[in-house]
Amino acid sequence: MCRAADLALRSALALLLALSAACGSRLPERDFTTRPPTAPGTTAPSTGASGTAAPDAAGPPIRVGVIASATSPVGGDALTGPRDGALAYFAALNARGGIDGRRVEPVTCDDGGSGAGNHTCVTELVEEKRVFALVATTALDYAAASRVSRAEVPDIGGQPIGPAYDTYPHLYGIYGSSAPRTGDRPGWNGVLYGGTEVYRYFKQVHGARTAAVVSYNQPSSAAYARLVSRGLRAEGYQVFEEQVDFALPNFRAVAADLRARRPDLVLDALDGHGNARLCEAMDAAGAIPTAKVTHAQNWDSTVPDAYAKAPRCRNALWATGSSRNHDDTSHPAVRAFRAAMDAHAEGVAIRSQWQLEGWAAAMWFTDAARSCLAGGPRGLTRACVERYVERPEPYTADGLLLPVRFERLERPPATRRACLSVARWKDGEGWVTQGDMNDNCATVPQLGYRP
């Protein structure tokens, strides 16, 4: 499932990857009751050698916070893509003069992938450094989300690894939300909904009718696999499920069964390492489906290395998501993203979908701030930024995102028209876009699940 239901996969992978790691403990909410200052997070004017304020006709820099679980148990680079994309955007923006002459000053914080670390980052950024907003948050455990919401600090374009962006006001995930977001429970009385557009696409466009779903014998992985299977069956697929031991996975046995059953699609609830090992076993067994379907977190330039031992399976990889293919340089906004990454993201060799989405999050904040400053320097307030984000017109980040909106529906919709960005890996070409994402659309059922 795409958008909201993709949250289930992100949460499942985060949990199973962190099973044996020391993620830190979630501290009691009562330990974090100090309210931050209500003044917006613009920095004080710089001073000259004499200590007097240096002239700044446009106004002081606009300070924003960027939280990423950079040193999390998931491993290096897994959760830093949105941060890197946002930083590249702000660097390119400042090189052009900032927002109406005002520089954006991003302040980063690594929460280590733990709840305690996340609270520390929020204390540092919101209470001590008094950032105006958060941008492109990518937290393995967004434990301090309620504090950000209570402080009324807008969080723009975060990656929904957990249910926070479908729970709290003032938080705006990169894919939007239709949930009430009252701060009580996620979604509608604790239930989130997602569509079956991924499965509908492969059925309609590629004639897929059978599917295999591979998971670990671990609760979060198995729960997501059941959700995938449910969505596939809702679209009329014949589904069979494969499960491997989390500690000692026997992917050869799975591959042998896949060769015997010959499903059209293979989907999974595995981590990146498990995905690559499964592909190697499938390659060796000659069990190559029409599509080995992955998701936005694995939609990056590491494919040749990660799947080096599985050339046939590698070229059967398909990725789906809600943003324009980061490899599609025929689109001007993608070219701008890649040029800025090359110029401003020194040492970051990987190019990924999450980087593009972090870039789009920074653009979203910038467009909101610029609209507020059009009314004069005093127009830039948090409330004004949120009015821009919540306006009825959907946001697309110059065509990089499928239209994003926040609706706060009283009841979840039974069906919804949903669109899908699709790409396929091809050696020598990279990720190749499959149809325009604004045309890969269908009206599909919305299935509920508890995160």
TrEMBL record:
Residues 61-427 form the Leucine-binding protein domain. InterPro entries: Leu-bd (IPR028081), Peripla_BP_I (IPR028082). It holds the Pfam family Peripla_BP_6. Keywords: Signal. SUPFAM superfamilies: Periplasmic binding protein-like I. It comes from the Bacteria. PROSITE patterns: PROKAR_LIPOPROTEIN. Residues 1-24 form the signal peptide. The keyword Signal applies. Residues 28-57 are annotated as: Disordered. Residues 40-55 have a biased composition (Low complexity). Belongs to the leucine-binding protein family. This is Leucine-binding protein domain-containing protein. The lineage of its organism: Bacteria, Bacillati, Actinomycetota, Actinomycetes, Kitasatosporales.
